[in-house]
Amino acid sequence: MTEPRPSxxxxxxxxxxxxxxxSRRRVWSRExxxxxxxxxxxxxxxxxxxxxxxxxxxxxxxxxxLAFEGILAIGMMIMMVGGVFDLSxxxxxxxxxxxxxxxxxxxGVPVPLAVIGGLAAAAFGGFLNGFIVAKVRVNALITTLGxxxxxxxxxxxxxxxxxxxxxxxxTRFGQxxxxxxxxxxxxxxxxxxxxxxxxxHTRFFRQYYYIGSNAKAAHLSGLxxxxxxxxxxxxxxxxxxxxxxxxSSRIATASSTVGVGAELQAITAxxxxxxxxxxxxxxxxxxxxxxxxxxxxKNVLIISRVxxxxxxxxxxxxxxxxxxxxxxxxxxxx
Amino acid sequence: xxxxTSLLAMRGIHKRFPGVHALKGVDLEVQAGEVHAVVGENGxxxxxxxxxxAGVYRPDxxxxxxRGRSNVVIADEHSAQQLGIAIVFQERSLFGPLSVAENxxxxxxxxxxxxxxxxxxxxxxxRVCLRRVALAVEPEVSVEHLSPAQQxxxxxxxxxxxxxxxxxxxxxxxxLTETETSALFRVIAQLQSQGVGIIxxxxxxxxxxxxxxxxxxxxxxxxxxxxxxxxxxxGELICRMVGRDLALLQRQSRGEPxxxxxxxxxxxxxxxxxxxxxxxxxxxxxxxxxxxxxxVLAGLxxxxxxxxxxxxxxxxxxxxxxxxxxGRRVNIHSPAEAIEAxxxxxxxxxxxxxxxxxxxxxQNVVAARLNDFGAxxxxxxxxxxxxxxxxxKLRVACTNVNQPVQELSGGxxxxxxxxxxxxxxxxxxxxxxxxxxIDVGAKAEVHSVLRELASRGTAVIVISSDLPEVLAVxxxxxxxxxxxxxxxxxxxxxxxxxxxxxxxxxx
Lengths: 334, 507
Hints:
The complex is a heterodimer of chains A (about 325) and B (about 500).
Chain A: H1 8-20, H2 30-48, H3 56-81, H4 89-105, H5 111-134, H6 140-159, E1 162-163, H7 168-175, E2 177-178, E3 181-182, H8 183-201, H9 203-213, H10 215-220, H11 225-251, E4 254-255, H12 262-272, H13 284-303, H14 308-333
Antiparallel strand pairs in A: 1-4, 2-3
Helix pairs in contact in A: 2-13, 3-8, 3-9, 3-11, 3-12, 3-13, 4-5, 4-6, 4-11, 5-6, 5-11, 7-11, 8-9, 12-13
Chain B: E1 6-17, E2 20-31, E3 35-39, H1 46-53, E4 61-66, H2 77-83, E5 85-88, H3 100-104, H4 119-132, H5 148-161, E6 166-170, H6 178-193, E7 197-201, H7 205-211, E8 214-219, E9 222-228, H8 234-242, E10 262-271, E11 285-290, E12 294-298, H9 305-312, E13 318-325, E14 328-330, H10 335-341, E15 343-346, H11 350-354, H12 361-365, H13 380-394, H14 410-424, E16 428-432, H15 440-455, E17 459-463, H16 467-473, E18 476-481, E19 484-490, H17 496-505
């Protein structure tokens, strides 16, 4: 388990060598491995399908399609660094979109207020999840599995199948384009940069690495573990709400089922990108690569005319393989 | 009570593990209908010896005779069971959600012709077994709904149902109340009268004088002889258990009176009501400690020392009690408030609750002091520089401070935990079993770190079960037993005998 104590002499030499040139972090990581794999896929398919794959339109489409899950994955990465996850995010996104749509179409509330209403509802839903997990101490999987059903049901109750023909003043944002990329993509990039800064450099978010690594030790070191958990669930709710509202702005419809299955897609991407189910590991940049890798895989499978049944099989196998590889590598180290 | 027929005879048992000679030719003889106590300090070899009887380990040398058969080989747990040897473990090995009957007959449920479990026969047979241990519960009840004492009796019933002739009790009363303890003793007496042999392991000497016929003392893996209980006394047993040479660890206390101001004062601390009935239950704890003093909390496992630390540190809820730091009354309900008030606590189980194993050394060191390294742009470099200093001062053997702590040895990991608190620089530092599982060299280094910390005016509270360590570092010793302070000894007057006597006899 532990390494033998080096003799004083060798320990001394190692120390001086290290002091003069401190090695910061391990160079090899899941993020880097996945990035290289992603690059090689791009390379290979650019050669195989120079027309259909290597086009601006195709890449723009890939990004457009991943924006929704990408935004969710940012929140999910913060959660999983802290050692928890949230299955209700897809339903929460649907619910926030539907509430926003209902407020502006049915209740006649001005657009900005309707958006704020949708976000507030999503944040409250997230807070509820966090409260149940941290204070009542129900397991996160069970809590969010339950609230997923609740949020999905509420979305259907309020919006039916969906609320269509949302006002132009609302859809203008989601459908705007800059430099060939749609607004949701820009939004995802902006959120990712902000979240990367927060998770990598602020003291507040640094605490999530500690509670994810060992919640007991974090508690005994004076960290407010329960409070931090409630905050991360609330933040996740807010981010899910944003994702749902932006998506409904883009398609001009608040669909009650837009988020179905999105939670698992987000969790898959985040794990591929280096998060661990037990917490304490992961970066936003890893989450983004995970999301991009998944979207790219789907895209190349469609382009190479692989049937949709096989897409599921291949993506599922890739996930298990990636995590299995990690587990084998870690075992060797200990 | 013993009837003279030898049930078990172990002769010249040796067991070696890599680097440790755990048993050095131990003899143990148990007669049918006898309660035979085995005593010794932690690490004396009791568990190893019992694990050999249970078939977990094979002895390297020596012979075992059981029920008239000489040279018995106990190859595994199953063959121990077939011979008729059963252990009632400290940590109960029951299936919580399953019924009493399912537990007693686990894997041996009576079945009908089609392989279906015959419930009626199962419950009938279980009732017979439960009657033998005087346990009045229904066979259908889930085991997790029973009290610890009742669960223990279910284990005894299970042992009887497989026809055990020798039952080993490993610290059976550690979690029992006094009434439950005497109920267990009645069951043991009944088993005795049925000719079952009992091996009874306990730290509580007064229990041994209550129920045992003979007692065998182990020390550092060697037998110190077997005595008839009626012909010995606690003092003699303690002497045999601890008599070792103390030259290894130098006594630090010079017995000079400490005139520094009082740093921590605790008055009338009581556990919250929710702990009433469980053991230990902290009651009327009052003490004080001055700056520059090292106070050791001694006592047996389960005496309430860790619970007291957790209570002071805001983890374990209190019903009452006043805590003053530097004369100022403080209100502590969480570790964060405790740290704010000037307390620090390095927990007993480093890996479970002390360290962030997959995080780097530097990140572990700064964990309780994140506020010092910038809110909007966390200064990792500065944390590494600070850690570098501690690494030199505490002589931590590592390649660099960005190495994950899980790659360090136990002694170096402990130094990282200490470094975290040295960085916080609390007024009062509580360290729980600071040298458990680390080698002698690192042990002495940890001791000198604690002494240096005290010499700078910190009040240091050490929880330790290691008697030589207690004597080596203590300026003063408080002995706890069953959640109360039962004795106070000055460091230069304390001896292993005095501490053990306090901890085992004064109930």
